[in-house]
Amino acid sequence: MKNFKKYAGIVSGLALSFSLVACGPQDSGKSTSDTSKSDNKTNQLLVWEDQQKADGIKDAVAQFEKDHNVKIKVVEKPYAKQIEGLRLDGPAGTGPDVLTMPGDQIGTAVTEGLIKELNVGDDVQSIYTDVAMQSQKVDGKVYGLPKAVETTMLYYNKDLIAEKDLPKTLNEWYEYDKKVTKGGNYGFLALFDQIYYAQSVMSGYGGYIFNKDDKGNYDPANIGINNAGAVQGAEIIQKFYKEKLFPAGIIGAQGINVLESLFTSGKAAAIISGPWNIEPFTKAGVNYGVAKLPALDNGKNMSAFVGVKSYNVSAYSKNADMAQQLVEFLANKDNSKKRFEITKEVPAVKDLANDPVVTESDAAKAVAEQSQFSELTPNIPEMNEVWTPADAALQTIATGKAQPKAALNQAAETIKGQIKAKHSK
Which of 272, 397, 360 lies closest to 17, judged by CA? Predict the structure, then answer.
């Protein structure tokens, strides 16, 4: 972290991540740029932006309106839920022209015919990191442009533990936890009852979601969530719960709220989270630092899923050409930089890797360093069948209701059954 130049090349070759898990069901949406209505429907665009992120595109939207004589309405909605809204509002004619969504939903959206292929050349595609751009492709066709990238990282409270004293490995954190966990205070915490976080340990020992075939495509028939390495990783995770080093409250649907509350109240020394918490933790007045995830005892670093947020064009848009122009404009270098300055979402534009605005950010440095140990969240439709069974298995492991091998075997069988039932051709 002290020498960011070392990682600039990493950012240029890799996407930075995250995320998908911090967003939950919210209200129907808040209009943040409600422009006047016009009788000319083709001269209007509706944009669904992520929650609390509309300010990041406010100036770009105003400029686009001026340049193209178009009226744009921006509505904030949880980005991980926008695909659900599009399924309902798209056919009804009330959906967006442009939406934002996680890269791992692209395959599903394409299969269901929800988003349009974009006609963008290499000159446009080449400005983004290779991995980020790859997340927007299905069968070689482009369906979106990256707006931001995320990985999980380690947040630590500087008032509780100094940077020089940070444990270097997960096992060292385990030993640290045993020393400091008492009286409602905790050391290191993570939402290891969710595959999004647990995979960072399980993959380090050889576990995987879907293996890839010789062409580099995900093979949904080759599931490694219950192989020997995955089980070994789950056994390590289970120790934190079994010895009550993790509170029972961070298991389940409300776990993320409890985890974040413990950190902001100074009751937890360190947690695993993502860039989405930079602004909330700053506003909460936490004296925090950020770093890459710790190493494992086998010498490998904990991995992370690379999450890519994108701008996409609805297949139901009545003004798809203008919508694509807006997507290209919002995701270009200048507007990506401006959005980062406001929202702190790490951009996927290669040339911004060395920009002082980005390199001076500790969070961007941490994401850059973690990126070298990270992998894209699979973007094939079959990934939808993984989350619930995997999380259910990990929660039984965390609560001691099942042993890792049996729980993961059951999850793998459930995933295979659901893939067969829902995705067989």
Answer: 272
Based on the number of CB atoms within 10 Å of its own CB, is 280 exposed (0-12), middle (13-18) or buried (19 or more)? middle
Query: Which of 347, 190, 341 is closest to 279 using CA atoms?
Result: 341
DSSP 288-307: EEEEPPPBPTTSPBP-EEEE
d(CA 99, CA 115): 9
Q: Burial letters for 185-209: b for 16+ Cβ neighbours within 10 Å, e otherwise?
A: ebbbbbbbbbbbbbbbbbbbbbbbb
pTM for this model (two decimals):
0.78
**Closest residue by Cα to residue 246 from 290, 206, 190, 197:** 190
Q: How far apart are CA 291 and CA 370, in angstroms?
A: 8
pLDDT in tens, 85-113: 999 999 999 999 999 999 999 999 999 99
403/398 Cα distance (integer angstroms) = 9
According to the model, what pLDDT value does residue 286 have? 97
Decide: 345 and 56 in contact? Cβ < 8 Å.
Answer: yes
Q: Where in the chain is the domain with CATH 3.40.190.10?
A: 5-150+307-376, 153-305+380-423
Question: pLDDT (tens digit, 9 = 90+) per residue, 62-84?
Answer: 999 999 999 999 999 999 999 99
State the CATH class of domain 5-150+307-376.
alpha beta
CA 267 to chain CA centroid, Å, is: 26
Check if CATH label 3.50.50.60 holds for domain 153-305+380-423: no
Measured distance CA(74)–CA(47) in Å, rounded: 5
CA dist 247 and 310 (Å) reads: 35
Owner of token pair 């340049």: 67
pLDDT tens digits for 102-142? 999 999 999 999 999 999 999 999 999 888 898 999 988 99
